[in-house]
């Protein structure tokens, strides 16, 4: 590491030179950031990436400043967010007035109380989808974990967002489109300084993916606007909403909101559940305890909403999975007003990167930080009783941009895990190790093949 004198008159900032930063970031981005943060013990760092020199912010005090205390100085603008604008438009995934209004409209739809009203339907959908896996057992075929998790999650999210207005076929069409968008965006994120009039790899795939999404979503929005109803799904609510000027939302505004929430909700949860199967394979003791809880609470399944409060260990496992693999791993901000973080002066116009992946693995705040140990989240444990720094664990972000989907996550994820494990035994067929790859949500770099068999109970009927 070297010292950057230009950051004066505040404290000198350590910097990671290009020749060290770039190869590591290209190989394993999340791991590289966590490694740099660990070496610096959470001090502010500057990544020297040629024309682009973002600050890496990982100490919980500093994260809190960026995300909450001085959030207006650190906005979701700039080079990292621009590529996303092409997908999300100006909506809840932006900042300023558009974000504020969008959040006002969407927030009431994601409260724990609202989620409770749809939990029954969510559990029915999960059960229906999980039963379809009998076919994998019959045929002995393996399947791709991320795709299958995305299918289940999208099916749930389609209900929440679109009511019955999106057919299952259309739902299946947009999953690969979102996946392609997530991967192809990476080139723009890696080369944020490249002007948009220049085509770079990924652009064509990205634009095609956005077009496929629009081909599905716009006709549904038009129909919903032409035939308004009183339903509580998000598209119906958006059709009844007004913007910051009191005007009814346009079809573009509704499209932007739906696409943003779709992306924020289905891919993130699907990726957490993909990492979960890998972790369970590597930790048979945890897997056995989880299975025992599910056998006791859910029995033959499928899981129903009343089971959720009793799935205590399941929740701990999910929390620990989110610590090691927070799907929203990359939270960039543009500094819009001169700021000071950890004694370092940061000028307006700079970029800062916040990453729960790195903070949640800092040895200063976590014992055995790389070890998968759900016990950390046991109810009543010291760490849980307020001693842990609020921003040492923030898989759902924090401050005014905090994730709206956390209550939904803690309903849908336990239902999915418990319904699957009440019926099947899972095994990972791809040999590890599994590094993190470059994508908008934290994904394993290589595909994860899963095999399923029925668990111990008699499912012979299903095989007929
Ligand atoms: C494991 C699952 C999830 C994770 C790890 C996750 C993570 C995050 C994070 C870190 C943010 C903050 C982004 C930032 O500060 O720039 C965020 C924002 C958001 N999330 Fe989630 N999320 C998850 C699931 C969901 C679900 C299920 C939904 C919706 C149903 C959702 C909707 C949103 C929305 C709308 C925002 C933007 C909030 C705002 O900026 O005002 N998320 N999420």
From TrEMBL:
Record keywords, A-Z: Heme, Iron, Metal-binding, Monooxygenase, Oxidoreductase
Top-level taxon: Bacteria
Keyword Heme tagged: yes
Keyword Nucleotide-binding recorded: no
PANTHER family given in the database record: BIFUNCTIONAL ALBAFLAVENONE MONOOXYGENASE_TERPENE SYNTHASE, CYTOCHROME P450 FAMILY 4
Record family assignment: Belongs to the cytochrome P450 family.
This protein's name: Cytochrome P450
Native organism: Streptosporangium oxazolinicum
């Amino acid at each position: 590491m070297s010292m950057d004198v230009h950051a004066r008159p505040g404290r000198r900032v350590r910097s990671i030179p290009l020749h060290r930063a770039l190869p590591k970031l290209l190989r394993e981005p999340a791991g590289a950031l966590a490694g740099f943060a660990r070496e610096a013990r959470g001090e502010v760092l500057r990544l020297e990436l040629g024309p682009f020199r973002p600050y890496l912010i990982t100490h919980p005090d500093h994260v809190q400043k960026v995300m909450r205390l001085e959030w207006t100085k650190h906005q979701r603008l700039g080079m990292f967010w621009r590529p996303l604008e092409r997908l999300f438009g100006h909506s809840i995934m932006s900042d300023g007035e558009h974000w504020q209004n969008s959040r006002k409209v969407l927030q009431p739809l994601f409260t724990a109380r609202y989620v409770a009203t749809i939990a029954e339907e969510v559990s029915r959908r999960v059960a229906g989808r999980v039963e379809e896996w009998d076919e994998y057992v019959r045929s002995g075929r393996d399947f791709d974990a991320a795709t299958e998790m995305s299918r289940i999650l999208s099916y749930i999210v389609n209900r929440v967002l679109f009511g019955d207005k999106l057919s299952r076929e259309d739902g299946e069409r947009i999953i690969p489109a979102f996946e392609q968008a997530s991967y192809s965006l990476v080139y723009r994120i890696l080369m944020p300084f490249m002007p948009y009039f220049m085509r770079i790899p990924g652009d064509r795939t990205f634009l095609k993916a956005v077009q496929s999404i629009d081909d599905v979503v716009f006709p549904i929005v038009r129909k919903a606007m032409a035939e308004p109803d009183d339903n509580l799904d998000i598209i119906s609510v958006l059709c009844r909403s007004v913007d910051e000027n009191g005007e009814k939302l346009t079809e573009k505004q509704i499209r932007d909101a739906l696409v943003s929430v779709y992306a924020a909700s289905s891919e993130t949860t699907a990726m957490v559940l993909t990492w979960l199967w890998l972790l369970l394979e590597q930790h048979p003791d945890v897997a056995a305890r989880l299975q025992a809880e599910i056998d006791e609470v859910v029995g033959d399944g499928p899981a129903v909403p009343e089971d959720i409060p009793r799935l205590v260990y399941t929740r701990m496992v999910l929390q620990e999975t989110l610590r090691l693999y927070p799907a929203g791993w990359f939270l960039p901000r543009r500094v819009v007003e001169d700021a000071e973080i950890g004694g370092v002066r940061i000028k307006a116009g700079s970029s800062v990167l916040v990453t729960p992946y790195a903070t949640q693995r800092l040895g200063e705040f976590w014992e055995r930080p790389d070890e998968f140990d759900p016990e950390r989240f046991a109810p009543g444990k010291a760490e849980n009783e307020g001693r842990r720094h609020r921003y040492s664990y923030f898989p759902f972000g924090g401050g005014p941009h905090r994730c709206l989907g956390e209550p939904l996550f803690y309903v849908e994820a336990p239902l999915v895990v418990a319904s699957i494990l009440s019926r099947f035994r899972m095994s990972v067929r791809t040999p590890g190790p599994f590094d993190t790859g470059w994508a908008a949500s934290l994904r394993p770099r290589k595909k994860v093949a899963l095999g399923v068999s029925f668990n111990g109970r008699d499912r012979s009927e299903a095989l007929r």
